[in-house]
Amino acid sequence: MEFKDLPPDTQKIAAETLKSLILDGGTEKVEPAKKLAQEIREAFIALYQSSP
């Protein structure tokens, strides 16, 4: 499964989560933000795949 396969609502929640973490954590550099985005993407895909 890829991120694009997640329902739009789930994609929006993931984007809001990333936004919140970047704003709260002050991630200003590109590489830490990219790593965080990848981790969130993987987490949401894993959560969605394990849903009943």
From TrEMBL:
Annotated protein name in UniProt: Uncharacterized protein
Species this chain originates from: Escherichia coli
